Amino acid sequence: MYFNSFDFLIFLPVTFLLYWFLDNRKIVFQNLLLLAASYIFYGWWDWRFLSLIALSTVVDYVVGLKIYESNSKKHKKRWLLCSVFFNLGLLAFFKYCNFFIDSWIELCSAIGIQNQEFTVMRIILPVGISFYTFQTMSYTIDVYREKLKPTKDLVAFAAFVSFFPQLVAGPIERATHLLPQFLNKRSVSQGSISLGCKLIIIGFFLKLVIADRAAIYVNAVYNNVELHDGLSFIFATVLFAFQIYGDFAGYSLIAIGTAKFFGFDLMTNFRRPYFAASIHEFWNRWHISLSTWFRDYLYIPLGGNRVGKFRWFFNLFITFLISGLWHGASWTFVLWGAINGAYLIIEVLLKAKSRKGILNIISTFILICFSWIFFRANTVSEAFCIVKKIVLQPGKLYIGMGDDIAAPFYAVLAIIVLIGFEIWREYIGSVKQITEKTEISRMLAYSLLIFLILYLGVFGDSQFIYFQF
């Protein structure tokens, strides 16, 4: 079920009304309702994959208790490894099995070995598997680190794992933050519902107007590499930078806003990343829940920056390399991760700091856009072909044809509105200050967004980009 679908338009208010009908009952009934609603939400794609969530839930619930009850460090570690290997095993099989088989076949073919005995399995990728496996792993790791006591409430834990607003594309919540909210009585105010509605409106603006409008041009160019010149790829790459931001930040805002209807607070996932003045700062602002996950559960355990310089560089590079692979089973994502890892190492060598300035912001944006080429390209060879055309074959700028000719102009118009709003938030005032303005100002601002959504929005249940991860 997509947030931008008619099904969700019915699902959300029905779930909300049923949930608050139980407001004065025991918390367990609210959690049971959220658990049932979350399984319906996820099962809307393919009910068979509910078994994976249920199995992951039971395994990590049991492992958490076993770690806590164990008296020796050795036994605790064994139980932790059970959780890690189980979750990574699920991820490896469903997400990477085809990738490694295909890569092996291509390697054999490249060195002249033709083996007809390979049978390639076409495994369907369960939506959101990268997100909920990381979320459950963080629970058992934090129990092992004694940052969290395991819960004996299976219903609350299952609802935490499958909480539908952030189940399939984050934010990737930590158990230390979200799980206690399932164990305690929730309260909601008119203010929180109002804020939730505003976040949802902004989220739909980012998704339907910016991301989906930009996608029309981006897809036309990136899916026909041989037909376009360098200028078209420059424009398409800039549009893609805002497409992926609008798509993913839009999803996060809708998720955060929806969670507020049920009395939950989810973590901020984006903080105006294109105002970053360095690559390091960009990754402190972009997909914060994933960046901090890799920092806390991979980079720091590897030694972080508390080791020698070359080991530090290795830790940075391998963290981003794995982050790239997490994003998708393709060498394009691995290269994208490697590029960003190299960026950070170069910044360390140059002792670059995040000094605010328009030139630093622009140069950071250009570097990020270059890496987006590899993220968006369909294959590695196409990515290098695009880079070659940008450098050696600028040519003409493709605008569009037929009904799609206005798509890039509408996308640019929406991006200008977004930039103006984010300049306000970054340099002038916070969201709280904006919401404290007069009722007329608020109504005008959100009425404008609703008008742009209805007039310029692309409707049709388009998939969010990060659903494939």
State the helicity in percent bands: 55-70%
Strand tally, please? Answer: 0
The structural class is: mainly alpha
Radius of gyration: 23 Å
Globular, elongated, flat, extended or rod-shaped: what is the shape?
Answer: globular
Amino-to-carboxy terminus distance: 16 Å
Q: In this structure, how is the largest beta sheet organized?
A: none
Strand content range: under 5%
Query: Into how many domains do the coordinates divide?
Result: 2
Helices and strands, with pairings:
Layout: H1 6-21, H2 27-43, H3 50-69, H4 73-110, H5 129-144, H6 154-162, H7 175-183, H8 190-222, H9 230-261, H10 279-285, H11 288-299, H12 309-327, H13 331-350, H14 358-376, H15 380-392, H16 407-428, H17 431-435, H18 439-456
Membrane topology: Multi-pass membrane protein
Protein name: MBOAT family protein
InterPro entries: Ac/AlaTfrase_AlgI/DltB (IPR024194), AlgI (IPR028362), MB_O-acyltransferase (IPR051085), MBOAT_fam (IPR004299)
What keyword list fits this structure?
0% strand, 18 helices, 69% helix, mainly alpha, globular, single chain, 2 domains, 469 residues
Write a brief caption for the model.
The chain has about 475 residues and is mostly helical. The chain contains 18 helices and no strands. Helix content is about 70%, strand content about 0%.
